Amino acid sequence: ALAAAAAKKGVACADALDLAGALGQATDLIKQVDGYINITEPFKLAKKIEAEPALRDQLAAILWNCAEGVRIASLLFSPAMPTKMADLWNRWNCTPPSGVPLAQLCEWGGPLSLKAGTLVAKGDALFMRADRFDERREWVRSEVSALMASQPPMLATPSAIASLIQKKMNS
Q: CA-CA distance, 36 to 157, in Å (whole number)?
């Protein structure tokens, strides 16, 4: 229900041409999926399948819920990340048909949702791990502070900050 509400809010933002709002709802939806994974622990459940085959349906439902949440979030992320989202759709065999309203595409469990048994292919991570992102953000903050405090003070221009970020990414 929370994911469906986030999808509806994201669609409303997109309809109002509020890209930041739509991206925020997509991010919230991904956070909800992450929380759901932490609560349901599908990877632990998967390890029990051989000994307890009856758990297979429960695991399938958990994985479908996660994938459906990511699919809907991908629709909301697509204006900002079109290539990455198109790659996901191709790997998951769920490329949205053109001409269909976003609200219909984002309907949780609707006619355009992921279908049971659909083959999906693994690909690169869609998002940077939060802990790595936080580590890099803190490093950039400290470097920018050092730039500002240097004698003579260096300007923290966008190009200087971009150079610092590139330096960290390459290390």
A: 40
Cis peptide before 82 (omega within 30 of 0): no
CB neighbour burial string for 21-35, b if at least 16 within 10 angstroms, e if fewer: bbbbbbbbbbebbee
Give the CA distances from residue 68 to residues 2, 39, 71, 162, in Å, rounded to whole numbers and listed in that order.
Answer: 13, 17, 5, 35
Position 59, amino acid: L
Q: 18 φ, ψ to 5°? A: -95, 85
Using CA atoms, how far residue 19 sits from 14, 65, 78, in Å, is 6, 25, 10
H helix runs in the chain, sequence order: 2-15, 19-40, 42-48, 56-77, 82-92, 102-105, 130-149, 158-170
CA atoms within 13 Å, Cβ hemisphere of 27: 10
Mean pLDDT by 10 residues, the chain (171 residues): 76 86 89 90 92 91 92 92 93 94 90 88 76 64 66 57 61 59
User: What are the residues whose beta carbons fall under 8 Å from the beta carbon of 92, sequence distance 6 or more?
Assistant: 67, 71, 114, 118, 120, 121
| pLDDT reported for residue 152 | 56
Query: Under 8 Å CB-to-CB from 75, ≥6 apart: which residues?
Result: 85, 96, 102, 105, 106
Amino acid letter, residue 89: W
